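> agent: user asked for a holo structure of the chain below bound to pyridoxal-5'-phosphate. Plan: (1) validate sequence alphabet, (2) canonicalize SMILES, (3) run complex prediction with ligand conditioning, (4) return tokens. Step 1... ok. Step 2... ok. Step 3 dispatched.
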Amino acid sequence: MKKKKIILPDDEMVRQWYNVAPDIPGGLTPPLDPATGQPAGPEKMTPIFPMGLLEQEMSAERWIDIPEEVLEVYSLWRPTPLVRAFQLEEALGTKAKIYYKYEGVSPAGSHKPNSAVAQAYYNKREGVTRLATETGAGQWGSALSFATQKFGLACKVYMVRVSFEQKPYRKSMMNTYGAEIVASPSNDTAFGRSVLAKDPDTPGSLGIAISEALEDAASREDTKYALGSVLNHVLLHQTVIGLEAKKQLAMVDDYPDVVIGCCGGGSNFAGVATPFMPDRLEGKKNVRFVGVEPASCPSLTRGKLAYDFGDVAKMTPLLQMYTLGHDFIPPGIHAGGLRYHGMAPIVSALVRDGIIEPMAVHQLECFEAGVLFARTEGIIPAPESCHAIRAAIIEATRDKNEPKTILFNLSGHGMLDLASYDLYFAGELHNYEYPAEAIAEATKNLPKVDE
Ligand SMILES: *Cc1c(COP(=O)(O)O)cnc(C)c1O
């Protein structure tokens, strides 16, 4: 039998996160205060985030210790397996070696608890007793519900209404962990009520839900806000993925020629990819990095690199990122975790500097790849993760005789997304053309700043 699963011994568990920020060739630009156009210092954000996370947000340190309390919770499912996808390779008839890092073994079924646990810990440490957040497909909400419960915090989740209605089992999960959940837009916030007054039947959006959670956190002394992607500290926490994968590949004497991840806000991709970047930047390795996004929500391949708000109500500081415009509402594709108008500033800067190659793929080819993966490797992937699988297949079959090593992140399982698979098999899913007009419209409203 060939060695399929590469398991990292517990005593090799990763104990530090890697911060790529100081290694970005062209550097990172600071967040701006929309009122003044000046850099927004930490004091602007202390009502919303604890100091421990704000320090990480602005840190220039390469290595940051993972607190013992966080490691303790990580040890419930970490280290995660790295698997050589022999059966998939065989089905494709390729000489390429394909490895996937499997984050679906976490309690929430995705990579998201890697950051949720760390965020709950730093909030707890600073005396916060309640967190407010938003969730689209429900992955982040279930991760934070789990994490807050581990540290004895209350949790309120604003869940985008269409997902609230389509994904009842994500709701059940959050309830089981003890969180309070409401469909967004809701009557619980002034912003939610204003959206409902204008459009009572709105399906909601991630940008609206973020605005509601921010309002909740800003209006209560005991509450802070938690974001599941995009920000530097979230990407930092996710680097356990790539750091473990690097050690696991070394155990079988391998090293990737290309590292692939799907991109919603950019956190799982940065998590798997950035730990390999110093080798490339120091000229030691020729590794490529491919970030995959849906063609229907193409911030990296079709967006503008500009300062923009993170939410619809324009409550966040301005971040420099590839964006489709903060009021762009993406089509209802079934990879809910990839429907965000912007991309993490770190990922955006690395695309700008030519380190990351962005790629856009369509919904149907992703489900086709996901079904092939399920039938060969056995795991039914999350629709988001299918984007990474599709890109891995493209890389492995471009020239089937070229030996190369491919690593992709399998960000989560799809056991709570089976309704989307049903629609795919029923022929009811479609590709959305690049929504050029909607993007042109939304990017007209980008905030004006002097750059
Ligand atoms: C949320 C999610 C994503 C997208 O978020 P990133 O921050 O870009 O990683 C991808 N895959 C799964 C399974 C998710 O839950």
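> agent: step 4 complete. Summary for user: The first helix runs from residue 42 to 45. The chain has two domains: 75-109+233-443, 113-227.
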